[in-house]
Amino acid sequence: MNEAFIDIATRWWSSLGGAAASLTRIVLIVLVAWLLVVVLQRVVGTLRERIASRLDDREAAKRAQTLDRVFRYLIVVVVSLVAGMLVLGEVGVSVAPILGAAGVVGLAVGFGAQSLVKDYFAGFFLLLENQIRQGDVVKIGDHAGMVEVVTLRYVQLRDYDGNVHYVPNGYINTVVNMTRDFSHAVMDIRVAFRENVEDVMAVMRDVAAQLRADPAFSPRILADMEIAGVDNWAESALIIRCRFRTLPLEQWGIKREYLRRLKAAFDAQGIQIPVPHLMVYPGQDREGAVPPLGTARAAPQS
What's the pTM? Predict the structure, then answer.
Protein backbone atom coordinates (compact mmCIF):
# COMPACT_ATOMS: atom_id res chain seq x y z
CA MET A 1 0.00 0.00 0.00
CA ASN A 2 2.74 2.39 0.98
CA GLU A 3 4.74 1.47 -2.09
CA ALA A 4 1.75 2.16 -4.40
CA PHE A 5 1.17 5.52 -2.74
CA ILE A 6 4.83 6.42 -3.10
CA ASP A 7 4.76 5.39 -6.76
CA ILE A 8 1.67 7.55 -7.45
CA ALA A 9 3.22 10.49 -5.62
CA THR A 10 6.44 10.10 -7.56
CA ARG A 11 4.59 10.05 -10.86
CA TRP A 12 2.49 13.05 -9.84
CA TRP A 13 5.59 14.97 -8.80
CA SER A 14 7.33 14.04 -12.05
CA SER A 15 4.35 15.19 -14.12
CA LEU A 16 4.11 18.35 -12.04
CA GLY A 17 7.78 18.97 -12.59
CA GLY A 18 7.37 18.39 -16.33
CA ALA A 19 4.40 20.78 -16.45
CA ALA A 20 6.35 23.39 -14.50
CA ALA A 21 9.26 23.01 -16.88
CA SER A 22 6.96 23.35 -19.90
CA LEU A 23 5.29 26.38 -18.34
CA THR A 24 8.69 27.91 -17.67
CA ARG A 25 9.74 27.35 -21.28
CA ILE A 26 6.46 28.86 -22.54
CA VAL A 27 7.00 31.93 -20.39
CA LEU A 28 10.55 32.22 -21.70
CA ILE A 29 9.35 31.90 -25.31
CA VAL A 30 6.74 34.61 -24.82
CA LEU A 31 9.23 36.85 -23.02
CA VAL A 32 11.91 36.40 -25.69
CA ALA A 33 9.35 37.04 -28.46
CA TRP A 34 8.19 40.23 -26.74
CA LEU A 35 11.77 41.44 -26.26
CA LEU A 36 12.58 40.60 -29.88
CA VAL A 37 9.58 42.61 -31.13
CA VAL A 38 10.53 45.58 -28.94
CA VAL A 39 14.19 45.52 -30.03
CA LEU A 40 13.44 45.12 -33.75
CA GLN A 41 10.78 47.82 -33.71
CA ARG A 42 13.16 50.15 -31.89
CA VAL A 43 15.84 49.46 -34.50
CA VAL A 44 13.37 50.20 -37.30
CA GLY A 45 12.26 53.38 -35.54
CA THR A 46 15.86 54.52 -35.10
CA LEU A 47 16.60 53.95 -38.77
CA ARG A 48 13.45 55.83 -39.74
CA GLU A 49 14.41 58.81 -37.56
CA ARG A 50 17.92 58.93 -39.02
CA ILE A 51 16.60 58.76 -42.58
CA ALA A 52 13.94 61.41 -41.87
CA SER A 53 16.53 63.73 -40.31
CA ARG A 54 18.52 63.66 -43.55
CA LEU A 55 15.48 64.40 -45.70
CA ASP A 56 14.51 68.00 -46.32
CA ASP A 57 11.32 66.97 -48.11
CA ARG A 58 8.35 66.75 -45.75
CA GLU A 59 6.56 64.28 -48.03
CA ALA A 60 9.60 62.01 -48.15
CA ALA A 61 9.60 62.00 -44.35
CA LYS A 62 5.93 60.98 -44.42
CA ARG A 63 6.75 58.17 -46.83
CA ALA A 64 9.48 56.95 -44.48
CA GLN A 65 6.97 57.00 -41.62
CA THR A 66 4.52 54.92 -43.66
CA LEU A 67 7.19 52.34 -44.43
CA ASP A 68 8.11 52.33 -40.74
CA ARG A 69 4.54 51.29 -39.86
CA VAL A 70 4.63 48.55 -42.47
CA PHE A 71 7.88 47.05 -41.15
CA ARG A 72 6.64 47.23 -37.56
CA TYR A 73 3.51 45.31 -38.52
CA LEU A 74 5.52 42.66 -40.38
CA ILE A 75 7.83 42.21 -37.37
CA VAL A 76 4.89 41.61 -35.04
CA VAL A 77 3.25 39.11 -37.43
CA VAL A 78 6.39 37.06 -38.12
CA VAL A 79 7.62 36.90 -34.52
CA SER A 80 4.12 36.07 -33.22
CA LEU A 81 3.74 33.20 -35.69
CA VAL A 82 7.10 31.66 -34.75
CA ALA A 83 6.44 32.08 -31.02
CA GLY A 84 2.96 30.58 -31.38
CA MET A 85 4.30 27.46 -33.08
CA LEU A 86 6.93 27.02 -30.36
CA VAL A 87 4.31 27.37 -27.63
CA LEU A 88 2.07 24.79 -29.32
CA GLY A 89 5.02 22.41 -29.46
CA GLU A 90 5.58 22.82 -25.71
CA VAL A 91 1.89 22.17 -24.99
CA GLY A 92 2.10 18.94 -26.96
CA VAL A 93 0.16 19.95 -30.03
CA SER A 94 1.69 18.67 -33.24
CA VAL A 95 2.56 21.58 -35.46
CA ALA A 96 2.90 19.59 -38.70
CA PRO A 97 -0.86 19.03 -39.28
CA ILE A 98 -1.53 22.67 -38.43
CA LEU A 99 1.09 23.80 -40.94
CA GLY A 100 -0.41 21.52 -43.57
CA ALA A 101 -3.92 22.83 -42.94
CA ALA A 102 -2.62 26.39 -42.86
CA GLY A 103 -0.96 25.80 -46.21
CA VAL A 104 -4.21 24.60 -47.75
CA VAL A 105 -6.22 27.43 -46.20
CA GLY A 106 -3.58 29.96 -47.16
CA LEU A 107 -3.66 28.68 -50.74
CA ALA A 108 -7.44 29.05 -50.88
CA VAL A 109 -7.33 32.51 -49.31
CA GLY A 110 -4.51 33.46 -51.65
CA PHE A 111 -6.60 32.62 -54.70
CA GLY A 112 -9.58 34.49 -53.30
CA ALA A 113 -7.65 37.55 -52.15
CA GLN A 114 -4.96 37.71 -54.82
CA SER A 115 -6.13 41.16 -55.93
CA LEU A 116 -5.82 42.41 -52.35
CA VAL A 117 -2.32 40.97 -52.04
CA LYS A 118 -1.44 42.52 -55.40
CA ASP A 119 -2.66 45.91 -54.14
CA TYR A 120 -0.47 45.71 -51.04
CA PHE A 121 2.66 44.63 -52.93
CA ALA A 122 2.16 47.34 -55.55
CA GLY A 123 1.51 49.94 -52.85
CA PHE A 124 4.66 48.94 -50.99
CA PHE A 125 6.87 49.50 -54.03
CA LEU A 126 4.91 52.63 -54.94
CA LEU A 127 5.91 54.11 -51.59
CA LEU A 128 9.41 52.65 -51.61
CA GLU A 129 10.25 54.09 -55.04
CA ASN A 130 8.63 57.45 -54.23
CA GLN A 131 6.57 57.51 -57.43
CA ILE A 132 3.66 59.42 -55.88
CA ARG A 133 3.62 61.84 -52.97
CA GLN A 134 0.80 63.57 -51.18
CA GLY A 135 0.09 66.88 -52.92
CA ASP A 136 1.28 65.77 -56.38
CA VAL A 137 -0.98 66.15 -59.40
CA VAL A 138 -0.93 62.86 -61.29
CA LYS A 139 -2.74 60.96 -64.01
CA ILE A 140 -3.37 57.28 -63.36
CA GLY A 141 -5.11 55.59 -66.25
CA ASP A 142 -8.34 57.47 -66.90
CA HIS A 143 -8.18 59.31 -63.57
CA ALA A 144 -6.35 62.55 -62.86
CA GLY A 145 -6.22 64.88 -59.87
CA MET A 146 -4.31 65.89 -56.77
CA VAL A 147 -3.08 63.10 -54.52
CA GLU A 148 -4.70 63.37 -51.09
CA VAL A 149 -3.90 59.96 -49.58
CA VAL A 150 -1.38 57.24 -50.46
CA THR A 151 -1.73 53.92 -48.65
CA LEU A 152 -0.64 50.35 -49.28
CA ARG A 153 -4.16 49.62 -50.53
CA TYR A 154 -5.11 52.55 -52.78
CA VAL A 155 -4.36 56.08 -53.98
CA GLN A 156 -6.98 58.76 -53.34
CA LEU A 157 -7.24 61.53 -55.97
CA ARG A 158 -9.41 64.65 -56.08
CA ASP A 159 -10.01 66.19 -59.51
CA TYR A 160 -10.70 69.83 -60.42
CA ASP A 161 -14.47 69.32 -60.08
CA GLY A 162 -14.02 68.08 -56.53
CA ASN A 163 -14.71 64.42 -57.33
CA VAL A 164 -12.73 61.87 -55.30
CA HIS A 165 -11.25 58.86 -57.11
CA TYR A 166 -10.02 55.75 -55.29
CA VAL A 167 -7.54 53.83 -57.46
CA PRO A 168 -6.40 50.40 -56.14
CA ASN A 169 -2.64 50.08 -56.33
CA GLY A 170 -2.85 46.73 -58.09
CA TYR A 171 -4.51 48.37 -61.10
CA ILE A 172 -1.83 51.05 -61.51
CA ASN A 173 0.23 50.30 -64.60
CA THR A 174 1.56 53.77 -65.43
CA VAL A 175 1.74 56.98 -63.43
CA VAL A 176 2.06 60.43 -65.03
CA ASN A 177 3.33 62.83 -62.36
CA MET A 178 2.85 66.42 -63.52
CA THR A 179 4.41 68.12 -60.49
CA ARG A 180 7.69 66.32 -59.77
CA ASP A 181 10.61 68.74 -59.18
CA PHE A 182 9.33 71.28 -61.74
CA SER A 183 6.55 71.75 -64.30
CA HIS A 184 6.12 73.19 -67.77
CA ALA A 185 3.39 75.60 -68.82
CA VAL A 186 3.04 74.66 -72.49
CA MET A 187 1.03 76.97 -74.77
CA ASP A 188 0.03 76.90 -78.44
CA ILE A 189 -0.41 80.48 -79.67
CA ARG A 190 -2.65 80.83 -82.73
CA VAL A 191 -2.21 83.78 -85.12
CA ALA A 192 -3.52 84.54 -88.59
CA PHE A 193 -1.56 83.48 -91.68
CA ARG A 194 -1.14 87.10 -92.67
CA GLU A 195 0.96 87.96 -89.59
CA ASN A 196 4.75 88.15 -89.64
CA VAL A 197 6.05 85.30 -87.50
CA GLU A 198 9.13 87.18 -86.28
CA ASP A 199 7.03 90.15 -85.13
CA VAL A 200 4.65 87.83 -83.31
CA MET A 201 7.54 86.07 -81.53
CA ALA A 202 9.01 89.42 -80.52
CA VAL A 203 5.71 90.41 -78.88
CA MET A 204 5.56 87.03 -77.14
CA ARG A 205 9.07 87.48 -75.73
CA ASP A 206 8.29 91.01 -74.51
CA VAL A 207 5.18 89.83 -72.67
CA ALA A 208 7.12 86.90 -71.17
CA ALA A 209 9.87 89.25 -69.94
CA GLN A 210 7.29 91.54 -68.34
CA LEU A 211 5.62 88.58 -66.66
CA ARG A 212 8.89 87.27 -65.25
CA ALA A 213 9.82 90.75 -63.99
CA ASP A 214 6.54 90.98 -62.06
CA PRO A 215 7.29 90.33 -58.33
CA ALA A 216 3.98 88.50 -57.98
CA PHE A 217 4.97 85.89 -60.59
CA SER A 218 8.79 85.90 -60.80
CA PRO A 219 9.33 83.49 -57.85
CA ARG A 220 7.15 80.89 -59.60
CA ILE A 221 9.02 80.99 -62.95
CA LEU A 222 12.34 79.12 -63.06
CA ALA A 223 13.65 80.15 -66.50
CA ASP A 224 12.98 82.40 -69.47
CA MET A 225 10.27 81.39 -71.87
CA GLU A 226 11.29 78.97 -74.61
CA ILE A 227 9.76 79.37 -78.08
CA ALA A 228 9.91 76.19 -80.11
CA GLY A 229 8.73 77.94 -83.28
CA VAL A 230 5.89 77.34 -85.73
CA ASP A 231 4.56 73.97 -84.64
CA ASN A 232 1.74 73.49 -87.13
CA TRP A 233 -0.39 74.99 -89.88
CA ALA A 234 -4.02 74.72 -88.90
CA GLU A 235 -7.00 75.38 -91.18
CA SER A 236 -7.13 79.07 -90.30
CA ALA A 237 -4.07 79.77 -88.14
CA LEU A 238 -0.37 79.41 -87.60
CA ILE A 239 0.40 77.69 -84.29
CA ILE A 240 3.50 78.83 -82.40
CA ARG A 241 4.43 76.63 -79.44
CA CYS A 242 6.16 77.98 -76.32
CA ARG A 243 6.60 77.04 -72.67
CA PHE A 244 7.63 78.29 -69.23
CA ARG A 245 9.48 76.20 -66.65
CA THR A 246 7.72 76.76 -63.33
CA LEU A 247 7.57 75.49 -59.80
CA PRO A 248 5.36 72.43 -59.28
CA LEU A 249 1.62 73.21 -59.37
CA GLU A 250 2.26 76.72 -60.74
CA GLN A 251 2.10 75.96 -64.47
CA TRP A 252 -1.64 76.53 -64.80
CA GLY A 253 -1.63 79.92 -63.07
CA ILE A 254 1.35 81.11 -65.11
CA LYS A 255 -0.32 79.94 -68.33
CA ARG A 256 -3.56 81.79 -67.60
CA GLU A 257 -1.79 85.04 -66.70
CA TYR A 258 0.49 84.91 -69.75
CA LEU A 259 -2.42 84.32 -72.13
CA ARG A 260 -4.34 87.19 -70.56
CA ARG A 261 -1.42 89.58 -71.04
CA LEU A 262 -0.65 88.29 -74.52
CA LYS A 263 -4.24 88.94 -75.66
CA ALA A 264 -3.92 92.59 -74.58
CA ALA A 265 -0.54 92.89 -76.33
CA PHE A 266 -1.90 91.39 -79.57
CA ASP A 267 -4.83 93.82 -79.50
CA ALA A 268 -2.45 96.75 -78.97
CA GLN A 269 -0.20 95.65 -81.87
CA GLY A 270 -3.10 94.81 -84.18
CA ILE A 271 -2.12 91.14 -84.40
CA GLN A 272 -5.10 89.09 -85.43
CA ILE A 273 -6.15 86.11 -83.38
CA PRO A 274 -7.89 84.00 -86.02
CA VAL A 275 -11.34 82.52 -85.93
CA PRO A 276 -12.56 79.85 -88.36
CA HIS A 277 -13.89 81.42 -91.59
CA LEU A 278 -15.16 80.20 -94.92
CA MET A 279 -14.50 81.63 -98.38
CA VAL A 280 -17.12 80.80 -101.05
CA TYR A 281 -16.16 80.57 -104.74
CA PRO A 282 -19.10 80.62 -107.17
CA GLY A 283 -17.18 78.72 -109.83
CA GLN A 284 -16.92 79.50 -113.59
CA ASP A 285 -19.16 79.01 -116.60
CA ARG A 286 -18.06 77.46 -119.91
CA GLU A 287 -16.60 80.72 -121.14
CA GLY A 288 -14.50 81.16 -117.98
CA ALA A 289 -16.60 84.01 -116.64
CA VAL A 290 -17.44 84.11 -112.94
CA PRO A 291 -21.17 84.67 -112.41
CA PRO A 292 -22.11 87.21 -109.72
CA LEU A 293 -23.08 85.91 -106.30
CA GLY A 294 -26.76 85.14 -106.01
CA THR A 295 -27.11 84.21 -109.70
CA ALA A 296 -28.72 80.86 -110.20
CA ARG A 297 -27.42 78.62 -112.91
CA ALA A 298 -29.81 77.10 -115.39
CA ALA A 299 -30.21 73.39 -115.07
CA PRO A 300 -28.83 71.43 -118.03
CA GLN A 301 -31.47 70.36 -120.59
CA SER A 302 -31.84 66.67 -121.26
Answer: 0.60
